[in-house]
Write a structure and sequence with these properties.
Porin, 10% helix, mainly beta
């Protein structure tokens, strides 16, 4: 089930690449230009503060390869194309090795965006930032008997997150070479313990090829004035949590209500309430389950970063009004980040990770509905 849900989410995010504009620029110009990229990377694996984990990280020699297919929207009048300075969005495949049998040779499939920091125009030397999110696989997970050395992750499949800053050099109309410094993270969201996660700081060098050279934007930036407005999100969240190594997984769910103020084309911010239910409290703690010990409540500060009209990154910081360490709620607050896609009928779906001070609590598979009246025409 977890594999199916991850692949479904990756498919939704990949389809979102083509949702940047609802109209073709002209009859004679292709809607998108392709960009192929191949990069090689090496880097350091970070320890987790334990003796075994630090020793394994120090002994690991990490390198990887990254292959991406991106699309650049050719309609320069599109609002989000203007805001993000002709971004590239697409899908990719990643493969790596740590030279350690205990960890394995993980691969990943992912959605990514690459956004210039400034309009490139005709500059040869440019900078951009990259973000990627997807599903990794082919880890050698922790096993008490067969593989006790991998105390980082207890699952074959994990979440894949990549953030990077790139320096690009356009040495020919169709060719670009890049050097980047980044941060990579693998985690299963406490779906299976242990779940310290694997963190990397890679340096990479790559080359991009554009079969049809992307025409640089040479005009003046023109974005319609944004009219601020309110929206209300109602969401159902579900996940599965493993509390102890070797123990069963248990259902965890929430209902979330948020008010957000759309501040501009990029950002929406507001407040909300999360109500969580943690199943089988009595079974896990050898006592009686009650409504009180199974529930937790939190006030949530929410922020949404819109990448396109439909695709966005939800971010939240929440403070519990009531919580229980027995339900894995180890701090008085938590964070949330992920990706969601809003369809034309205002139904949205996506996946986020909820964490306490950087330690994952659950992956949150979310479906919801937005009530809004957006007066902006774009």
């Amino acid at each position: 089930m977890i594999k199916f849900l991850c692949l479904l989410t990756a498919t939704i995010l990949s389809l979102a690449v083509f949702a940047q504009s609802d109209s073709l620029p002209t009859k004679n110009v292709k809607k998108y230009s392709k960009v192929w990229n191949l990069s090689f990377e090496q880097g350091a694996m970070l320890g987790n503060g334990t003796d075994i984990g630090d020793q394994l990280a120090e002994a690991s020699y990490y390198n990887g390869i990254d292959f991406r297919l991106g699309f650049s929207l050719n309609d320069h009048s599109d609002v989000y194309n203007q805001i993000y300075r002709l971004p590239i969005m697409g899908v990719g495949w990643y493969s790596s090795t740590f030279q350690q049998e205990e960890i394995g040779k993980p691969n990943a499939i992912f959605y990514y965006f690459n956004m210039p920091i400034r309009f490139e125009r005709s500059r040869k030397l440019t900078m951009s930032y990259l973000g990627a999110f997807g599903l990794s696989y082919n880890f050698n997970p922790y096993d008490e008997v067969e593989n006790p050395g991998n105390i980082f992750v207890g699952s074959y499949r994990n979440c894949y997150v990549n953030l990077a800053l790139l320096l690009n050099y356009n040495f020919a109309p169709k060719w670009v070479t890049s050097v980047s410094l980044g941060f990579k993270h693998f985690s299963n969201g406490s779906f299976q313990q242990p779940n310290y996660g694997i963190n990397l700081v890679p340096v990479s060098i790559g080359v991009s090829y554009k079969p049809t050279a992307i025409k640089p934007f040479e005009g003046e930036r023109s974005v319609p004035t944004f009219i601020r407005h309110n929206q209300f999100n109602f969401a159902f969240i579900a996940g599965s949590k493993n509390y102890e190594i070797g123990e069963p997984n248990y259902f965890k769910a929430a209902i979330a209500i948020n008010w957000l103020r759309a501040l501009n084309y990029k950002y929406r911010a507001g407040l909300g309430l999360d109500v969580y239910y943690s199943a089988a409290y009595g079974e896990r703690n050898d006592t009686v389950s009650t409504f009180s010990n199974s529930m937790s409540y939190a006030v949530v500060g929410s922020w949404e970063w819109a990448l396109t009209k439909k695709l966005y990154v939800p971010v939240a910081f929440a403070v519990y009004l009531k919580h229980s360490e027995a339900n894995g709620e180890t701090q008085g607050f938590y964070e949330r980040v992920g990706m969601r896609y809003r369809f034309n009928n205002n139904i949205f779906a996506g996946v986020t990770i909820k964490a306490h001070k950087g330690v994952a609590d659950i992956f949150e598979w979310t479906v919801g509905y937005t009530i809004k009246h957006d007066p902006n025409k774009y």
